[in-house]
Write a structure and sequence with these properties.
13-stranded antiparallel sheet; outer membrane lipoprotein receptor (LolB), chain A; two-stranded antiparallel sheet; 229 residues; mainly beta; globular
Length: 229
């Protein structure tokens, strides 16, 4: 966390705005949104980049959509905090209920990394069976990649999770003393190495909004509240 700018600075900077353009390479639905998230409360509000009148978010208790969920071409509840969580690593791994384990060293494509595994306590978040395996650059201490699974109960009502993937960070940008990547490339994780290239994500237009009022994250009048599946 210190290598990425420090947890104290992360919280002091205020809500984070960014443009996340998630482009699957297998024909699945793109998820191209402009998001503002509150680092303290993990509240979020998105605008669809191609039509900013279509919005969705998470107010800390419920998910919502404007004009309604049918206008969002993917699971708005699941996606409300997903980009924030990826962009917020490593800082979100300092939250209460996150357990970190030192896995020692591992080599990936000829480079040696320090590995940390993050798991979650029972009942933490919507998907407590998720996990992340973080690859730390030995020189900078910053994240180079992470492996992960998705165990969202709406997708796996009987337990289980997606196949493991590895998300490789691309480039670097500094905003108010915090270091972010320029984007991510996601691959299937097969036989302890990168497999098929499945998703390209670009991350742009980052800024912190310390004067943004908390009312921004409230459910807008007329919005549809999205129940958990």
């Amino acid at each position: 966390m210190e290598a990425h700018g420090g947890l104290q600075r992360w919280y002091a900077n205020g809500p984070l705005q960014f443009h996340s353009n998630y482009q699957p390479l297998d024909g699945n639905t793109p998820r191209n949104t402009i998001q503002i998230s509150d680092n303290w409360s993990a509240k979020a509000r998105h605008q669809m980049a191609v039509d900013t009148s279509r919005q969705f978010g998470w107010d800390g208790s419920v998910a919502w959509a404007v004009p309604d969920a049918s206008e969002i071409p993917f699971d708005a509840r699941f996606w409300a905090l997903t980009p924030y969580y990826f962009v917020g690593i490593p800082f979100v791994l300092g939250d209460e209920g996150v357990h970190l384990e030192d896995l020692g060293e591992a080599s990936q494509e000829g480079t040696s990394y320090d590995l940390i595994k993050a798991t979650f306590g029972e009942g933490v978040g919507d998907a407590p069976d998720d996990y992340y395996i973080i690859y730390l650059d030995k020189d900078s201490g910053r994240i180079a990649a992470y492996r992960y699974v998705v165990s969202y109960p709406a997708y796996f009502p009987d337990g289980g999770h997606t196949p493991e993937k590895i998300m490789v960070l691309k480039g670097e940008q500094e905003v108010n003393g915090i270091f972010f990547p320029d984007g991510y490339e996601t691959f299937m994780w097969e036989d302890q190495q990168k497999g098929a290239y499945v998703t390209n994500i670009t991350l742009s237009d980052l800024s912190f909004l310390p004067d943004l009022p908390q009312t921004y994250f409230e459910v807008p009048r007329g919005a549809e509240v999205i129940e958990q599946k």
